[in-house]
């Protein structure tokens, strides 16, 4: 999978995570709101149903009351006639047929629309009857008596099961179990009707056993359409009607009238009012508004969350990109690289083709940065990035690990030839000159190569292998590539061992200092010495300073070593009051902020004359933080210490340095001196450098003078001092003392002899 694909996948992961987060917020809220709305709906529906049921019960009750009231009215109408004194006179005292016909029958039929009137005498015999304003037929009377007489009997105190009598007025003293008036609803000749009865005259003598039983007027008034529409109008019952056997719409209310014994009288039906529907109708708009409000809110929240999530995801991916890439050149950084390396190792373990790690270190990048400035250094890095990406295949990963270190992971397999030719291509690409900000810049590259195969360890191991190979490449002269092999591990352990031994030597006075004489231009008088550190390893014997100084610089031991050399040289130098003592200082040492303090302290402690101490530094000290270097130099000069620029000609040899920094002395590197006799241009350069030094008011020392010819040339060219095997190799302090004691016995010698001694 490509790096891009990985990022996409991780971004998708971000999205789904956000989607999940969004759902986890929205779903519960949605569920709560939906449940709340459902509760409201259910509550509305159930209260609607209850309201409907209540309404039905109420209407039935009202209807029953209306029927009862109707019955009572009929009774009152009858009572207005039957209980009068006139009635008593004309019915009870003396039965007057005409009077009854006029004042009872027709009166009730005409003014109150009673359908039938029957007057029973004291012995329950019908003495008068009127049906629909006509005398009742015998048949009608026969049928009607079956319903009318039981009421009459009940009034006379015989229990005939009239528990549903609408009104029952006690007959008063002496007639406690008889009634003066009663009304009931019954079916009369097949139709529902109110039957009302009133006793005429005192009621105490109502018993049929009594000779003079009270006559009873009975009237029938049908509950017909008019009555029903009256009730319907009053009670506002829709579609109130009497029903027969046929089917009734299920939504209609039915009210059935029956006798106490259960015999049906009539059934009525009407369309009930439905207040529930009104409730529902009144609630629905609010619920709809609430629901759409919620839907709107949910949509708004979702949209807001989606946008926020997208913004956060974009921000995160931007942050992740920033966190995983180098801001200067845009290449993946060390973190990203480590992830990819880990993935590459896993892929190879899982059976993919072997991969190769190229660990690239730019040679002299630091110098460019220091001399030409950081903007140029940055531009150079961008140029190197471009060249690297153009040199490599699309699926190779190029990363910048920091500073001047790059790395490439490529799946080219493990063919050493192919690997080396790829490394050479990289080196060639990097080493081609750059034109930046009007400067022509040349740098190099060293590459350490480690093969990623099934047996290799983790990322740390692979990096260590590549690092060792890189170390080897640099050691072998830079601008080259080395493939890691197991022997390098041994080298590394050797180096580590050496560092350990060096630490011991520093701590236990295992180092020595030899002093190389520095003579005047004639080579006759020794004017100074240069302290050169020596280390005789207990097992390996003599180890050259180039090797152990480099090891000390790499391990940081150079600080203690340098301090030790300075102290020792000051102590030894006290024995030679006329000589200057030159001490080499490593850039690492010089750049430390406490360096000058250390020098001052050492001078004080050893009571060495600062004017006789000469600090030798190389140009590399001046690279980088030039202001700090210059400040340190000025402070040293203020102490009275002299400063010499060592190995002039091997580094940048910038004339600017000579002019800007307070050097007292210039030491021409021995590589020039060596070439004087062979190369004309070397001689010319030496000439020029000497004149330059002199022109700037500096003393000039020539290093590595080995032959009489060199000496003659240099003296003629104008050097002030000389140093080299011709005048003496580095020797012990005792030998220097002896040499000073017997100056005449010493003759300059040509190098071969010097080397031989
Ligand atoms: P350098 O400071 O340039 O020291 C001069 C080197 O040239 C010495 O090498 C010396 O032995 C050698 N030399 C002198 N005359 C001749 C000659 O006529 N012919 C040849 N072929 N060589 C000559 P050495 O002692 O091996 O030191 C090498 C370098 O190690 C020194 O170069 C110096 O940079 C460094 N070094 C030595 N001691 C110290 C020390 O105590 N501290 C630091 N920082 N560096 C040291
Ligand atoms: Mg030196
Ligand atoms: Mg030197």
Q: Helix and strand layout, with pairings?
A:
Elements: H1 3-82, H2 85-93, H3 97-112, E1 116-120, E2 126-131, H4 138-155, E3 167-170, E4 179-188, E5 191-199, E6 216-222, H5 225-235, E7 238-243, E8 253-258, E9 264-271, H6 275-324, H7 334-349, E10 355-363, H8 365-372, H9 374-391, E11 397-402, E12 405-410, H10 416-431, E13 434-436, E14 439-441, E15 444-452, H11 459-475, E16 481-483, H12 486-507, E17 511-520, E18 526-537, E19 541-543, H13 545-555, H14 558-573, E20 580-584, H15 587-590, H16 595-606, E21 613-617, H17 626-639, E22 642-648, H18 655-660, E23 665-668, H19 670-675, H20 680-695, E24 699-702, H21 708-717, E25 721-722, H22 733-741, H23 751-756
Parallel strand pairs: 15-16, 18-20, 20-21, 21-22, 22-23, 23-24, 24-25
Antiparallel strand pairs: 1-2, 1-6, 3-4, 4-5, 5-6, 7-9, 8-9, 10-12, 10-15, 11-12, 13-14, 17-18, 17-25, 18-19
Helix pairs in contact: 1-3, 1-6, 8-9, 9-10, 12-13, 14-16, 16-17
This protein binds ligand C2E and magnesium ion (2 copies).
């Amino acid at each position: 999978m490509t790096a891009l694909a990985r990022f996409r996948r991780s971004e998708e992961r971000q999205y789904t995570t956000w989607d999940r987060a969004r759902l986890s917020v929205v779903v519960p809220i949605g569920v709560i709101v939906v449940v709340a709305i459902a509760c409201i709906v259910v509550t509305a529906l159930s209260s609607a149903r209850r309201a409907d049921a209540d309404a039905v019960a109420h209407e039935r009750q009202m209807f029953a009351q209306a029927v009862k009231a109707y019955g009572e009215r009929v009774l009152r109408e009858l009572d207005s006639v039957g209980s009068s004194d006139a009635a008593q006179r004309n019915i009870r005292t003396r039965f007057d047929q005409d009077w009854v016909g006029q004042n009872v029958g027709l009166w009730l039929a005409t003014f109150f629309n009673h359908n039938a009137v029957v007057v029973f005498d004291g012995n329950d015999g019908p003495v008068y009857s009127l049906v629909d304003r006509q005398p009742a037929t015998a048949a009608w009377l026969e049928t009607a008596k079956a319903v009318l007489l039981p009421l009459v009997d009940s009034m006379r105190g015989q229990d005939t099961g009239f528990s549903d009598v609408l009104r029952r007025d006690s007959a008063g003293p002496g007639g406690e179990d008889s009634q003066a008036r009663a009304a009931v609803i019954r079916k009369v000749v097949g139709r529902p009707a109110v039957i009302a009865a009133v006793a005429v005259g005192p009621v105490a003598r109502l018993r049929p056993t009594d000779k003079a039983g009270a006559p009873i007027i009975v009237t029938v008034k049908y509950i017909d359409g008019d009555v029903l529409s009256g009730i319907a109008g009053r009670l506002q019952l829709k579609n109130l009607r009497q029903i027969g056997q046929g089917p009734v719409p299920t939504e209609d209310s039915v009210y059935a009238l029956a006798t106490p014994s259960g015999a049906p009288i009539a059934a009525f039906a009407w369309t009930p009012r439905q207040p529930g529907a009104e409730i529902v109708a009144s609630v629905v708009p609010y619920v709809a508004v609430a629901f759409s409000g919620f839907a709107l809110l949910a949509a708004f929240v979702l949209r807001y969350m989606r946008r926020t999530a997208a913004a956060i995801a974009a921000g995160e991916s931007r942050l992740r990109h920033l966190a995983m890439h180098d801001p200067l050149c845009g290449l993946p950084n060390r973190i990203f690289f480590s992830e990819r390396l880990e993935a590459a190792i896993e892929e190879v373990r899982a059976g993919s083709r072997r991969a190769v790690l190229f660990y690239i270190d730019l040679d002299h990048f630091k110098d460019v940065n220091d001399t030409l400035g950081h903007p140029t250094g940055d531009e150079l890095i961008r140029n190197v990035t471009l060249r690297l990406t153009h040199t490599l295949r699309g699926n190779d990963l190029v990363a910048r690990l920091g500073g001047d270190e790059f790395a490439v992971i490529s799946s080219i397999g493990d063919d050493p030839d192919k690997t080396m030719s790829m490394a050479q291509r990289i080196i060639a690409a990097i080493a081609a000159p750059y034109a930046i900000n009007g400067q022509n810049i040349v740098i190099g590259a060293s590459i350490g190569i480690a093969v990623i195969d099934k047996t290799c360890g983790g990322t740390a191991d692979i990096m260590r292998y590549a690092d060792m190979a890189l170390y080897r490449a640099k050691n072998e002269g830079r601008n080259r590539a080395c493939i890691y092999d197991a022997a390098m591990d041994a080298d590394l352990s050797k180096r580590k061992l050496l560092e350990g031994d060096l630490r011991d030597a520093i701590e236990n006075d295992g180092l020595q200092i030899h002093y190389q004489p520095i003579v005047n231009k004639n080579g006759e008088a020794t004017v100074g010495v240069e302290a050169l550190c020596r280390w005789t390893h207990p097992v390996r014997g003599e180890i050259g300073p180039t090797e152990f100084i480099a090891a000390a610089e790499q391990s940081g031991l150079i600080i203690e070593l340098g301090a030790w050399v300075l102290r020792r040289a000051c102590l030894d130098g006290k024995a030679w009051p006329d000589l200057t003592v030159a001490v080499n200082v490593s850039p690492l040492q010089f750049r430390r902020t406490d360096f000058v303090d250390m020098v001052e302290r050492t001078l004080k402690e050893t009571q060495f004359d600062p004017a006789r101490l000469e600090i030798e530094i190389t140009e590399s000290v001046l690279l980088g933080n030039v202001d700090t270097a210059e400040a340190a130099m000025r402070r040293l000069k203020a102490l009275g210490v002299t400063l010499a620029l060592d190995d002039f000609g091997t580094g940048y040899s910038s004339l600017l340095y000579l002019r800007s920094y307070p050097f007292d002395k210039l030491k021409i590197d021995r590589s020039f001196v060596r070439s004087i006799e062979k190369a004309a241009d070397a001689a010319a350069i030496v000439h020029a450098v000497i004149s330059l030094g002199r022109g700037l008011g500096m003393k000039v020392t020539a290093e590595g003078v080995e032959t009489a010819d060199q000496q003659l040339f240099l003296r003629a060219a104008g050097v002030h001092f000389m140093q080299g095997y011709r005048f003496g190799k580095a020797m012990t302090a005792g030998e220097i003392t002896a040499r000073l004691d017997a100056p005449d016995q010493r003759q300059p010698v040509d190098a071969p002899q010097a080397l031989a001694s």
